[in-house]
Amino acid sequence: MTLMTTPTPGINAFPSGADITKWNATIAGPSGTPYENLTFKLICTYPSNYPFAPPEVLFQTPIYHPNVDMSGRICLDILKPAGPGKEGAWSAVLNTSSVLLSIQSLLGEPNK
């Protein structure tokens, strides 16, 4: 909700229709990278136990990047569940804004 009331330059997210578990998002390609001046569309799907589990975030815009597969899935630690026996870094203090900013940063710094 903070992202809608206090926008962050270069990122945007809003619910996709009546289903509040699915959000459309956009991120601007970071300056000084091959993605500069490009805008990428993503879809965020929130599980029923959010914020205790991470959202699933997929690129809708095709992108060539070592941390994004052909289906748009993103390899980023904060998008993986954390806990005993798990390697993820998701935390309930993270929100949509921090996730999108991390993805935007990942575009400029692959394999982070």
Structure description:
- The protein is α+β, with helices and mostly antiparallel strands.
- It has one domain: Ubiquitin Conjugating Enzyme.
- 15% of the residues lie in helices and 24% in strands.
- The chain contains two helices and four strands.
- The protein has helices spanning 2-5, 96-108; strands spanning 11-16, 19-28, 39-45, 56-59.
- It has a four-stranded antiparallel β-sheet.
- A hairpin with a 2-residue loop joins β1 (11-16) and β2.
- The chain starts with a helix and ends with a helix.
- The relative contact order is 0.20.
- The mean pLDDT is 92.
* Gyration radius, in Å: 14 Å
| CATH evolutionary superfamily | Ubiquitin Conjugating Enzyme
Spatially, the strands of the biggest sheet line up as: 1-2-3-4
* Poorly predicted sequence stretches spanning 5 or more consecutive residues: none
* Count of alpha/pi helices: 2
Largest sheet: 4 strands, antiparallel
CATH top level assignment: Alpha Beta
What class, by secondary structure content?
alpha+beta
**CATH topological fold name:** Ubiquitin Conjugating Enzyme
Domain UBC core: 1-112
GO molecular function: ATP binding; transferase activity
Active site: 75
Organism: Dissoconium aciculare CBS 342.82
Summarize the structure.
Residues 1-112 form the UBC core domain. The protein is of the alpha+beta class and 112 residues long.
